[in-house]
Amino acid sequence: MTSRKTLPTPPTAPPRRRPAGEARERAIVEAAVKFFAEVGFDGDTRELARRVGVTQSLIFKYFPSKAALIERVYQEVYVGRWNPYWEVILADRRVPLEERLVRLYTDYAKTALTWDWVRLFMFSGLKGEAINQRYLQFLRSRVLEPVAIELRAELGLPGPQALPLSELEIELVWGINARIFYFGQRRWIFDVPLQADLDELIRLTIRHFMAGAREVLPGLGVFQARSAALPRVVAQQNVE
Question: What is the largest CA-CA distance in the chain?
């Protein structure tokens, strides 16, 4: 009877260990996110150092100023947690827009309605930090304007090449984000937990938005003015 040879087990690579400096910097950033979300951006870096278990001077070794540390917090929470797939979902016209918006905002809420995300955003606005302005401009270009464009396509209205987006259209879309962010405010600012399922609330929000948009959007002045101008253009062409 021939005995089977047992193949040697390939050596497994040891898990990568972060260099001490990299790990320490990472610890400072994670602690800073929690610290500023708890106490606001007026929080003293001495207290942050105490919580991390390092000296204040060590924090400034990695971050030359408090402003640089806050910038890293912004990159960590708002840029680093952004999922480009949300933009892919939004652009897929094979799927009805209402369904796309539900998928987008249901997943987005898992990131944007967390304790640190909501509280940092609120503290930034109260303190006058640039986090709010920068993120909202980012959100406008990545979500709000694309939603407005997709809404036009859904309703058979002229695209932005024929007729630039109006501020009224952008404000209409802001209504989705304002309502969904309010769910986070209730939980993490006002300490009033939601009594209904969040996913169901988001579906209801999107259904309400789409019903209102179908009724309101075609009647906006920007579309009415274009419709009124078309007969004059056609008549002028016929005369010529």
Answer: 102
Q: How far is CA 100 from the centre of its chain?
A: 16
Distance CA 95, CA 210 (A): 15
What the chain holds in terms of domains, given with CATH numbers, is: 20-78 (1.10.10.60), 83-223 (no CATH)
- Per residue in 110-126, pLDDT tens? 999 999 999 999 999 99
State both tokens at 138: 């980012």
In 3D, which of 95, 103, 92 has the Cα closest to residue 202? 103
Between the alpha carbon of residue 67 and those of residues 37, 58, 117, 128, 133, the distances in Å are: 15, 16, 18, 12, 16
* E strands, 133-185, in order: none
For residue 105 the two structure tokens come to 């905002």
The CA distance from 56 to 72, in Å, is: 17
Distance CA 74, CA 134 (A): 9
Which two three-digit tokens encode residue 61? Answer: 């070794």
Say what the pTM is: 0.83
